[in-house]
Amino acid sequence: MARMHTRRRGSSGSDKPATDENPEWSDVDAEDIESRVVELAEQGHDPSVIGLKLRDEGVKGVPVPDVKLATGKKLTEILDEHDADPEFPEDLRNLMAQAVRLREHMAENGQDHQNKRALQNTESKIRRLANYYRGDEIDEEFTYTHEYAAELLDDE
């Protein structure tokens, strides 16, 4: 992923196998997968963590390498159907948590100019991402403030 605010190169990552069917060794019923996804969401897990748990622990002991291939729906679509989706998209919430941590650090270390810039960059990313999600994933009236982000993360 290319970094927006640095001159460094992005980090490389592996690609998923190019296949359009679920492997035969993972023959879990789609309804069982959906119920497990909802169950994990109700326990408070983020969508990315749910995917890792399905891959590692599986459903009834059988690993699920790819939820979309197994069920025909993305994990977030399953959560949306069962009204178990989080209030904010995971990437936006993680950025807000990072900004709250940085702001707390800046309150104690006002001379830390490097992290002051990091906070500015993080809040800039939050506003940009909020514009992307506004009206669809988040409320039309949403505007980012540090106080709102801190309050939101305290509630969880």
UniProtKB/TrEMBL annotation:
Domain of life from the UniProt record: Archaea
Molecular-function GO term, any one: small ribosomal subunit rRNA binding
Pfam families linked to this entry: Ribosomal_S13_N (PF08069), Ribosomal_S15 (PF00312)
UniProt key word Plastid: no
InterPro entries reported in the protein's UniProt record: Ribosomal_uS15, Ribosomal_uS15_arc_euk, Ribosomal_uS15_N, uS15_NS1_RNA-bd_sf
Transmembrane segments: none
Acidic residues bias: start-end ranges: 21-32
Region Disordered, residue ranges: 1-33
GO cellular component, one term: cytosolic small ribosomal subunit
Complexes and interactors: Part of the 30S ribosomal subunit.
Family statement: Belongs to the universal ribosomal protein uS15 family.
Name by which UniProt lists this protein: Small ribosomal subunit protein uS15
Organism: Halorubrum kocurii JCM 14978
Lineage: Archaea, Methanobacteriati, Methanobacteriota, Stenosarchaea group, Halobacteria
